[in-house]
Amino acid sequence: MAEATKGLGQRSAYSEEHTRWLFRGGRFLQEVFGENSKYYRSMSALTWAHTGTFIAYGDPNIVKGRLDREAYKRQLDTARGLFLDAADHLKRAGIDAVYEGKDTGPESSAIVRVLNLAEAKLRNVIRRRPESEREIQDAFESLLVGAEIPFSRETERIEYSSKTYTPDFTMSKL
Questions:
Q1: Among 23, 19, 26, residue whose Cα is nearest residue 42
Q2: pTM of the predicted model, to two decimals?
Q3: Which three-class secondary structure state does DSSP give residue 55?
Q4: pLDDT tens digits for 64-109?
Q5: N- to C-terminal Cα separation, the chain
Q6: Are 48 and 19 in contact (CB under 8 A)?
Q7: DSSP code at position 96
Q8: Contacting residues for 171 by C-beta, under 8 A, at least 6 apart
């Protein structure tokens, strides 16, 4: 997220690229650090435009546009610093210790850990092209065991509408 701010300086506030980056970054900070974290609140407080009064000599719309552009670039720098510090904090404290939410910090951090395992580590533990879904499930189970995340495998039943489903993995605490 921090690196992406470099390319956004050539774009305008709320352009397609900026909006996508803004939502991805906000979602990341919210899910990993929580809505009560300084990171999420600071990011949410950025206006991406000039706030306050100004005196314009000439066309006020042109002056306001210039001030907005300068504020946008300054706030991109602020966001870059915010993401860099968030990454440092995450490395230093670990995913389990950074969440600042209501009462769901440990559960949310555990969910993020499970998602990170699936996204970042699953390919690493599968050494050859899997021939069945079972091989992928076994590899994921090994990751969960290694990460000491309590789970059950194909034991729960979920009724939805007129059908019953059996999830591959269930983490009851989550």
A1: 26
A2: 0.57
A3: coil
A4: 999 999 999 999 999 999 999 999 999 998 887 888 765 555 566 7
A5: 27
A6: no
A7: G
A8: 110, 114, 149, 150, 151, 152
